[in-house]
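I am hoping you can look over what I have pasted underneath with an eye to the fold:
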Amino acid sequence: MFQTLKAAFLLRYPVPGLGEVPVNLVGLACLGLLGFGNAGFWFTGIGLETLYLVSLSSNVRFQRWVTAQNRTEASGEVEVKRRALRELLDPGDTATLERLSEKCTRIESLWRAHDDVVLHSNVQALRDLQWVYLKLLLARQHVRNSDSESNEAALRGDIQTLERALTDSGLSQASRESKSATLELLRRRAANVVRRRQTLDEIASDLARVEAQVALVLENTTLEGKPQAVSADLELASLLLDGSVFGSSAADIAAVDAEYARPTELDKVTH
C-alpha cells in the first residue's frame, strides 16, 4: 500500500517540451503558494490531494502498473549483480560459461517462431540453468582459492609423526598436551582437505550435468524442430552447498536467487 501511495504521490506525466513532470507535486506547490494569499487554497489542496491519492492508489490497473515498475527496477538491479558476479570468474571459467551461453542462445533462436508462452517458460529454464552454472563456477573458484597451500600428503606425514611422538612414555605432561592439541588441529585440517576435494568433485559432476542438460535440449530442438519442455530442476550432487562456499559473493548471489524465484505476471497467467 505504501509503495502504491508513494508512486501516486510522485507520479510523473509526459509533457511535450518538458519531459516527464511530477504534476501532483507541481499542483501542490501552486496551491501552497496561493494559500499564502487565501488559506482556503490550502484546505482545498488537502482535500483534492486526499481524493487523488485514495482514488489512484485503490485503482487495480494502477496497482498492477506499480508492481510491474517495481519488478522492472528489481530485475535491472539483479542483472547488474549477475554481470558483476560473472566478472569475478577467471578467464578460463569465463570462456567455459560463454560456451554454454552460446548453446543457449542457439537454442532460443530455434524457438523464435513458436508459441510465446512455451518460449517464455523455456527461456526462463535456460536462464536458470545458466545461473546455476555460474554459481557452480563461482563456488569452484572460491573452494580452489581457499587454503590452496594445504597439502594432504604433508599433513598426513605430520600427523603420523606426532602420533609416533605421543607413544614416547618419556614425554612430559606439558609436552604431551601440546602435541595432542597440535595433532587435533592437524586432523581437522586434513578433514578439511578431504572435504575440499569432495566438494570439488561434486561441483565438477554438477557442471557436467548442466552441460549435458543444455546439450540434450539443443539436440532435441534440432531434431524435433520445435520447443520441448525444459527443466532447470536438477538434483545436483553439491546441492549448491551453502552460502559460505561463495565467500564475499554470497549476498549478491542470494539477491539474484530471490529475484529469479519470484513469479512473473506471465507465470501467474500460465499457472
The longest strand covers residues 13-15. The CA atoms of residues 94 and 238 lie 21 Å apart.
